[in-house]
Structure formats: structure tokens, C-alpha cells
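User: Can you predict the 3D structure for this chain?
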Amino acid sequence: MGEGEQCCGFGGTFSATFPTVSARMGNLKLEHLLAERPDVVVSADMGCLMHVEGLARKEGQTLRALHLAQVLRDAVRPKRSASTEAAS
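Assistant: Here is the predicted structure, written as C-alpha cells:
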């Protein structure tokens, strides 16, 4: 994705101290993300995920964001068969 190394602008108290700059940085990140049309966005930074997902929602865009821990959890979780789920 374009400018993948660029910060989303949320970190720590930055977004509260500089909300306008934070929003512009987040919107730039969001623009690059949406240009790639991903099925899901994965990051280890929960603040960044919340920031870009919130900005997307504010613009009426859909962005599915998952924390890396969620992806890893789902990767090792045993798959449940239809018959197992029906019995539950």
C-alpha cells in the first residue's frame, strides 16, 4: 500500500493534542488503504485500527479491521463442523 510506513496520526495523546493534524494523517492513511480495496486490514496497533476504522465509518466507508492477535487466534482455533454447531 502507498506510504505504508506513514503514521496514522493517532498515537498516544497526539490525536487529542493535535486533532486536526491527526485527522489529516488518518485520512491520508485511509485513502491509501481504500485505494488497495482490501478484504481486511490487519495491524498490531489497536489505536491505528480504531482511528482509521472510525474515520472510514465517518465517511460512510466500510473497512474491516482486525488486530493481529485476532487473526492468530482464529488461525489456531479448531474449525467447528456444521454437525457440531447444530448439536450445541
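The beta strands are 41-43, 65-67. The helical segments are 14-17, 19-36, 46-58, 68-76, 82-87.
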